[in-house]
Hints:
The structure is a single chain. This protein has helices at 31-34, 44-61, 142-148, 170-187, 203-214, 230-233, 246-249, 252-257, 279-295, 315-326; strands spanning 6-8, 77-84, 87-97, 100-109, 116-122, 152-156, 191-201, 218-224, 263-269, 302-307. It is α/β, with parallel strands linked by helices. The chain has a ten-stranded mixed sheet, sandwiched between helices. Strand 9, helix 9 (279-295) and strand 10 form a beta-alpha-beta unit. The radius of gyration is 19 Å and the shape is globular. It starts with 5 loop residues before the first strand and ends in a 5-residue tail after the last helix.
Amino acid sequence: xxxxxxIILALxxxxxxxxxxxxxxxxxxGTTAMRxxxxxxxxxxEALAWQKEVREQLxxxxxxxxxxxxxxxxxxxxLSSKACDGYxxxxxxxxxxxxxxxxxxxxxxKGEEPPLAAVVCIHGHGGNRHVVYDRTSIYKxxxxxxxxxxxxxxSTDVGQHEVFEKGRLLMGxxxxxxxxxxxxxxxxxxxxxxxxxxxxxxxxxxxxMWLGAMDTRISAEVSCGFLTVMDQMEKxxxxxxxxxxxxxxxxxxxxYALTAPRALQCQNGLKEGKTQFTVPIARxxxxxxxxxxxxxxxxxxxxxxxxGGGHExxxxxxxxxxxxxxxxxxx
Length: 331
């Protein structure tokens, strides 16, 4: 198998995925009854209305609806700066909410003429905002690779398992922090607001899913090591993904469907363990995402990259995707 692996643009649903009764796992039974906002094929106008309604309900469930539309000054403060090969890396502190500040890593390319593309780079469990720049890690240093190609990159910490502000939710705070990363790069005069992407692995793939779904400023999304179904996540996984009302509304395919018709690449490895983010389950989930891309006239904008590795980033596929959709090319 080549380094780019195979990009699967159109995958038929396996026969056992056709109904809830036949999904091959007793735990699947009844999932649809809980999932009242499941996407089914419909007209373009109805699809857009479905997206709007689901976003509103999810923002409310995430306890973020009170922050939407508020003007929260970033009040960015540069804490440190260092020169890297082809770019400058800064440690910056910004306001996330009126009462909470977060630290981010921001890279700016040297010698590149604006407007520039930007990518929010998101780590997984056990990582931090710096690990996505580590070329020796399972992230393959994808943030550093994008920075070296002339993109603005930004990363913040999302791995906390405590709620920082009263009345919030863990997943809501994680999502809001990466949305504030979008606010920050979008505020930079060098950045082209129509070319902002996001990418992450594992928990970072989950947060890339949420960010692309809930923030329509994201024009291209790469979600690595996460495409699955919620029943799979109920066993042998950290339960930080779950919050009240989520499963009653949607499954992951429906959240990914909120990204449509914007560009989406999911990556799943053939060496993932059977309790993890397996390719057959990813294909099942993809078959439930594809209809909205067809309904919105962009079936070519969603793809599954099946690679030969395990729980890791396929860097060549990620870079090729962002070159195609954000114009981030090798220099």
